[in-house]
Amino acid sequence: MEDARADPRWWNHQRLPLIRLRRQIEQEIDSTLRPATGALVVDMGCGDMPYHTLFESRGARYVGCDIDPAAPVPITPGQPVPLDAASANLVVSFQVLEHVWDLAWYLGECRRLLAPDGRLLLSTHGTWLYHPHPTDYRRWTKDGLVSEIEAQGFTVERITGLMGPLAWTTQFRLLGYREVLRKIPVLGRLLLAPVTVLMNVRMEIEDAVTPATIRETNACVYVVVARSGR
Fold this sequence. Notes:
The chain contains 8 helices and 7 strands, in the order H-H-E-H-E-E-E-H-E-H-E-H-H-H-E. The protein has helices at residues 2-6, 15-33, 52-56, 103-113, 142-150, 165-182, 187-209, 212-217; strands spanning 40-44, 61-66, 73-74, 88-94, 114-125, 154-162, 221-228. Strand 1, helix 3 and strand 2 (61-66) form a beta-alpha-beta unit. The radius of gyration is 18 Å and the shape is globular.
């Protein structure tokens, strides 16, 4: 699963959003966040921790938190995460926010865990299909996401849109074609990989010709860097 998320192949049906997200995370780590050796990175909603090596390979200490009881640090919604306040140099949240109902609690915990000079690195969907895990509540515009995060005591320093509408409309069609082809015996399975590769190539071209101004306000995924307002 880690390779599928962090290093998706051309036949992966979500290759473009996944690879763009990983590259943006790396860019933020190296250009802005630059966690010092031994810095604590807390992942709020870590899942199978696909990005832990991006932090550990740079000398940071990574701790994964999740509602899964088997997670290194289990999370109980509505209750404090069992980690010390102001202990994290960086809190990260990747494709989690749309699955959280109580944003005040979730972002409040992110803020509580951050040291005074710490940062929040967060990604979530601008436009995407319904995908419960175990629930799915929201999508954001750029302005709405900034306002939502700042309402919880953060100051957004930067927000970056990934994958514009030419590409994400093709992505949505690919997700639909995939479901259809998987139900066709033999032939559908044989066609799935080449159709996926062709659609991924098309998305790369479409996103390359999309003006940045359109992508920034009509993105599939937004990546946010914010600091605590305290």
